[in-house]
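# nightly structure sweep
# worker-07 picked up a monomer target from the shared queue
# config: single-sequence mode, recycle default, output format = structure tokens
# input follows
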Amino acid sequence: MEYVEAAFLQKLKLPNKDSHKGQNGRLTIVGGSKLFHGASLWALVVASRIVDMVYYASVVENQKLVEHLEKNLYAFINIPLGKEADYITESDAVLIGPGMVRGDANFTGTGETGEETKKTVLQLLKQFPDKKWVLDAGALQVINPEVLQSLNQVIITPHHKEFKTLFELEAQDETIMQMAQTYNCTILLKGKVDTIVSPGGRVIYNQTGNEGMTKGGTGDVLAGLVAVLACTNDLFTAAAAGAYINGLAGDKLYQTVGPLFNADDLAKIVPEILWQEIKK
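# output follows
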């Protein structure tokens, strides 16, 4: 069995001293809703510190929130819904799904529906089949797995329940490998031990992390980290390294406050942990 260790991070491509603007990654994030504000914002906080530019598309309510964030986060552009395609064209990778709703209007209580999420997700996936995609949360919960076969480069980041909902199978090593191969996707299955599987059948496990990471939002931080790493790295490396660093950041927090930290704390420390590890 193969496990992600510090040496694995040497595979990562990160900013070169001679690089210039645009060479170190451009990411589009499509996410958030009137119901879920924090999810896409946590991904944005992480991403804005690692790649050269982040294009952020969300509902008006979330865009108003990030107007405040812009005082501290300069490396992103707040784009209006309906204009995502213009910015995806310029992006190296796209993260879609954090904070997007599923269910009907009665479920959400905001008038938003999963059908609206589904329409947006399918439209963008169909328009850009050759982009690097990271599908998370709401995006995973509204599609059929056959959609994945139309994409050339895609990471999905389900937890066990989302895996079962998407594939109608329990998440076991054999079934994870089968689904990765059948649907030509890299799977990052989140759990006490994360399982990362490539379409070609390579499997690696990540053991970093702790019980403090069961809180809402830590998976959104992970999705943002994986997406920015995917901008300049192959998908398997991005998924495995992202899981390792995200968990390691949680372990760093655990040393001082035990499990008493949240996604805000995690998002703030991830870039520091990433830099410390790649310098070793």
